Amino acid sequence: MAVVGTLGPRLDRERFQWSSLLMLAPGLVLLVVLFLGPVLYAFYIGFTNLALVGSRSRDYSFTGLENVARMLGDYVFIKSSWLTILFVVGSAIVGQSVLGMLLAILLRNAVVPIRIVVGSIVIVAWVLPEITVALIWYAFSQAGGTLSILLGHGGTNFLVLVPMLIVSVANLWRNVAFSMLVFSAGLRNLPSEVLEAAEVEGASAWRRYRSVILPLLRPTIVTNLLLVTILNLSEFTLIYAMTQGGPGIETTTLPIYVYQEAFVFHQLGYGTAISLVLVLIGAFFSLLFVRASRRQV
Amino acid sequence: MLSEVRFDGVHKIFGAETAVEDLNLTVNAGEFLVLVGPSGCGKTTTLRMLAGLERPSYGRILIGDKLVNNVSPRFRDVAMVFQSYALYPHMNVYDNLAFGMRARGASKDLVAQRVKETADVLGLGKLLKRRPSELSGGQRQRVALGRALIRQPQVFLMDEPLSNLDAGLRVQMRAELSRLHQRFRVTTVYVTHDQVEAMTMGDRIAVMNNGRLQQVDAPETLYDNPANVFVAGFIGSPRMNFVPGRLASSDGRTSVAFLGITTPLGTGSRLTAGASDGEVTVGIRPEDLMWRPAAGPDCTLTLSADVDVVEPMGHEAYVTALCAGETVTSRFPPRSGVRPQERVDLALNPARLHLFDAQSGITILQRPPAAGAETLRSVGEARTNDSAGGRSERHGQPEARRVPSRTEEIS
Amino acid sequence: MSAVQARPLAGDKLIVVPYRKVSAAAMATNLVLILLGCFFLLPMLWMVFASIDSNPDWAIRIPSPTLANFADVLGRADALSSFRSSLILAGTTTVLTTLLALLSAYPLSRMHIPFKRPFMLVILFASGLPVSMLVVPVYQMYVYLGWLDSLYTTALFLAASSLPFAIWLMKNFIDAVPVELEHAAAIDGASTFRILREVVLPLTVPGTAVTAIYTFINAWGAFIIPFVLTYSPDNQPGPVEIYNFMGSHGLFKFGDLAVFSLLFSVPVIVLYLFMSRYFSGAFNFGGAVK
Ligand SMILES: Nc1ncnc2c1ncn2[C@@H]1O[C@H](COP(=O)(O)OP(=O)(O)OP(=O)(O)O)[C@@H](O)[C@H]1O
Ligand SMILES: [Mg+2]
Q1: Residue C289 placed within a domain
Q2: Model confidence over C48-88: pLDDT tens digits?
Q3: Contact C192 A241 (CB under 8 A)
C-alpha cells in the first residue's frame, strides 16, 4: 500500500514484555535443568561405555558407534525390539483402538443403566494405579487364578504359558478407556444430520459405519493412534511388575531391557543407547501418522 | 472534567486488512457522538483503539490534551460497554457492577449506594444476586451498560449498548441515556445500527464505510446535505432513490435532466466548484417524491409512473413504481387507494433534489447551508488528490463547534 | 416402540420390520456390553473380595467376610509409611507442577512471546518422550548432586517430567477464557495483579483442578522413577512397596495385598470422579460473552 510507506514505522508491533519472562522463568529453569539437560545428556551417554559400578563408572569414554554395533549383534535386543513392536501393534494400535471404538459405538446405543455401569467400570480400570492393575492381572492369570478356572485349566499359570498375550491383554484392559473416551467425543462431535440422512436413506448399520462414520472419524482415529502408540511404547510398570521381563526374556520389551541393561547389568551407556532407539521408533510412528493425517486433507 | 477526544491520522491494520484508514476526527468535550456504518466498517476497532485495547498502526490519539497512544486502558479513565458484554461470569450482577469502583478503591458504602442507584436506573434491582448465565440477553446488556454508567469517566464508549433490548425498553433506555448525558455531559462515543438512535441521541453523527470516515455532521445536516452517495443512501429509511441524470448549463443557468424531465436547479442551491456538465447521479428521498393529490404547491415537477408494489405501513405507505425505466420508491399517505399496475402522478420539489458526481459519488450541490456543518471530503476525492495536501487542508478548516441546543436548557 | 407411534399411517410392514430389527440390534448391543463389562469387572472383583475374605487365594470366590485384613494392613508400619511417602511425593509434585504450569501457561496464552509456536511444539514433543530415556541421565545427575533417596528431589524430577503436558493442558484452558473479560477489567481500572487474581484465576479454577488432579493421579502411580531414585524402606511410595510385596510370596498374605492395593486405589478413583464432575459441572462461560 502506498500510504504505508509515507507514515513511518508501525506503532502497533507486538512488544516483548519482561513480565512474561518473569512468569515463564521458574518453569523454564526446571525444564532446562531436569528435562532438557537429561535429554541432551542421554544423547551423550548413549555413545559412551559408562557403567553403574566398577572402573567404567568413573573412567568412561566416548565410544562412537560401538553401542550401535553391539546392538546389531545382540539377539536379546533384536528380540526385545520385536516384542515391543508386537506389544504396541497388538495391544495398543489394534486391540485398544478397536475395542475402544467398539465400546464407544455400543455405549452410544445402549440403554442408560448399562451405559453408565459399563462405562464407569471401563473408566475405573483406566484410573487404577498401574501397580494395582499389575497385581490384579497377576492374580487373575496365576495357576489357580480366576482365568485358569474359567477356562477349566485349574493348574495352568497363563503368565508362564502365554506371557506376552496376558501382558498385552492386561495393558489393553487398562488403557481401552482412553480410546473409548477419545472416540466417544469424536462421535459426539459428528454432525447429527449426516447420520440421520444416512439412516433415512435406509443404509444398514454396517454400511453406515463403513461409509459415513469411519471417514468422518478419520482425524480422531489418527490422533488416537498417535497418542496410543507414544504412550504404549514406553510402557514399563505394568509389564515389569507382572513378569520382570520373564519368563526368560519372553516379555522383555525395550523399556524393560533399558532398565535391566542399566541397573541390573550396570551398563548405563548401552542401556541409554537402547532408549534412544525407543525414541527413534516413536518418532517413526509419529511421522507415519502425521503423514496419514495430511494425506486426507 | 470535560475532555475532548481526537483521532489524528489514525490507521489500524490487521494483517492484510485495513480496519480503519486515516481517521481524523475530533469529538468535542461533552459531546455525544454517534458512530454509524455497515457491519465490519471499523466502528468497534475505533472504540477499542480509543479504549487502549488496540494500538493504532499509525497516527495519534488524544484524550484531553494528552497523547494516549501508549497509555494502558487502566489509566485512560474511559468506560466501555462491550458489544459482546464481557460480563464476569463468576460474579453476580452486584459484583459485576461494583468491580470497577472497588478496583479504584471506592469505599464500601459508596459502592453500595452507586450500585443501588445504577441498578434502579436500569431496572436491575431484583437481579443483583444472579450470575450472568442466569440472565436474559437484554438483562445482560443492561448489566454491561450499568458497569459503564456506574463510573464517571472522562469518556464513555458504547458499542451498540441497546441492540438486544425489546422496543419498549429501548425507547426507555434511550431517553435515560440522553437524560444522563444532559446531566453529566460526559464525552460519549456511541456506536449503533439504529437510525432512530443515531438521529435522536447524537449531537453529531459520524458515518464510516470500509474503514473510512465519510462525514461528520449534526443529524439534520447529515440528512439534508449528505457528502456523498454512500452517506445519502445509508442515512434515511426507506433509502434515497438514485437515478442517472444529465447536467447542462446555458445562459448561466444550470438545469438537470432525469426521469424524462428537465428542471433548473432550485434557488439557493449552488454547484460546487468541481461540477461540470455531463453525467450525474440524482438523489431523491422517498418523502420528497409525493403523490400528486397530496403534494404542496412548491412541488412544481410532475412525473408519471406505473405502480409496482404498495407496502402499507399504517401511518403511511411505501409505493414502488416504475418511472421512465427506473424503479423509485415514494411515500404515500396511508389510504391513497392506489393499486399495483395503476398509473399515478408523482410530485417533486426541485429544491429537494440531491446531485452527486456520477463517477466519484461526491455531492456537487451545495444546498442552503445548515449552521455549523463540518463536512469532510469523501473517499473518492481524497484518493484523487495527494494525501498530504488533502490532510493539511482538512486540518486548516476551522473546527466548527456546534453548540448543542440542549446546553441552553441546562445552563 | 416410538417407531410405531410416530408413524401411525404407515403400512403394517413398514412398522413391524424396523421395530423388530431395532429391538434385535439393541438386544445384541446390550448383551455384548454386559459381557464386556464382566471382562472388565472380574479382575477388579478379585481385589475387592479378597480384601474381605478370611482365607483368599488367586481366584475369585464368595468371601467368608472379615475385616482382619484391613486391621492387618493398617497395623503395618511399612504400609503406613509408604502411604506417607506417596502423599509427600504426589503432593509435592502436584503443587510444583500446577503452580509452574499456571505461571508458564498464562504468558504463553496471552502475551507476545517470540518463537511461541515452535516452543509449544517442543513442549508437546517433550511430553511424548519415554521416561526410560531420562532415567539413566537423571540417575547420574542425582548421584553427582547427592540427591538420591529423597522424596522431595524425586518429586522435583516427577514435576519436571509432568510439566510439559501440564503446561500444554493449562494453556488450552486459559485460551478458553475470553480475553475480553481481561480487557473489561483493565478498562474498569484493575491492576494486572488484580486482573489475574479476580478474573483470570477464578475462571481457570476448573482447568487448574483438572491439571492438578491429572498430575496427582500420575504421580501417585509413578513407579520407575521412585524405584530408581529412592532406596531406603522409609522412602518407598505405594507402587514400589506393592511391587516388593508381590515379589515376596508368603511374607505378605493375599488378603493384605488386596487390601493394600485397594486402599491405595481409592484416592485416585475418588479424585477422578471429582474431576469428571468438575469438568462437566454447571460451571461454564455461559453469559460472559454473547
Ligand atoms: N483482531 C482482529 N484481527 C483481524 N481482523 C480484525 C480484528 N478485529 C477486527 N478485524 C477486522 O476489521 C474490520 C472492522 O471490524 P470491526 O469489529 O471494527 O467492525 P464493526 O464496524 O464494529 O462491525 P459490526 O457492526 O459488525 O460490529 C472487520 O473487517 C474485521 O474483520
Ligand atoms: Mg462492532
Answers
A1: no
A2: 988 888 877 787 878 788 888 888 888 888 888 999 999 99
A3: no
Domain boundary among C21, C40, C66: C66
Whichever domain contains C104, its CATH number is 1.10.3720.10
What CA–CA distances, in Å, run from C236 to C70, C227, C242, C257? 20, 8, 10, 16
Q: Is residue C27 part of a domain?
A: yes
Expressed in angstroms and rounded, the spacing between residue B37 Cα and the centre of ligand 2 is 10
Distance from CA of A11 to the nearest CA of B (A): 5
Write down the CATH superfamily of domain A66-294: MetI-like (1.10.3720.10)
**Residue C76 sits in which domain range?**
71-281
Contact predicate B270/B369, CB 8 Å? no
Distance CA B99, CA B105 (A): 10
Q: Which residue has the higher pLDDT, C128 or A232?
A: A232
Write down all domains in chain B, each with its CATH number in brackets. 5-224 (3.40.50.300), 237-394 (2.40.50.140)
The residues, any chain, with a CB within 8 Å of residue B345's CB and separated by 6 or more, are: B291, B292, B302, B303, B304, B305
In tens, the pLDDT along A180-202 reads: 988 888 888 777 777 677 666 66
Number of domains in chain C: 2
What would the mean pLDDT of C145-158 be, rounded to a whole number?
92
A259 and C223 within 8 Å at the Cβ level: the answer is: no
Among the atoms of ligand 1, which is closest to the Cα of residue B48? 18
Residues C28 and C8 in one domain: yes
Shortest CA distance to B60 belongs to which of B355, B311, B391, B321? B391
Q: Are A233 and C37 an interchain contact pair (Cβ–Cβ within 8 Å)? A: no
Query: A73 CB near a chain B CB, below 8 Å?
Result: no
Q: Residue B56, preceding bond cis, omega within 30 degrees?
A: no
- Domain definitions of chain A by residue range: 66-294
User: In chain B, what is the straight-line distance between the N-terminal and C-terminal CA atoms, in Å?
Assistant: 17
Question: Region C164-193: what's the mean pLDDT?
Answer: 91
Residues lying with their CB under 5 A of ligand 2, a single-atom ion: B 44, 83
Cα–Cα distance list, A131 to A157, C159, C188, C195, C251 (Å): 20, 20, 52, 43, 19
Buried b (16+ CB within 10 A) or exposed e, A48-69: bbbbbeeebeeeeeebeeebee
Q: Are residues C89 and C231 in the same domain?
A: yes
Measure B18 CA to ligand 1 centroid, in angstroms: 9
Residues C144 and C47 in one domain: no
Higher pLDDT, B87 or C132: B87
Partnered with residue B8 across adjacent β-strands are: B60
- Spacing, Cα B58 to ligand 1 middle (Å): 17
Please name the residue of chain C whose CA is at the shortest distance from the CA of residue B78. Answer: C187
Kindly report, residue by residue over C78-99, the tens digit of the pLDDT.
888 999 999 999 999 999 999 9
Q: Does residue B328's CB lie within 6 angstroms of at least one atom of ligand 1? A: no
**Closest chain B residue by Cα to residue A8:** B58
List CB contacts (< 8 A) between B82 and chain C.
Answer: 180, 183-184
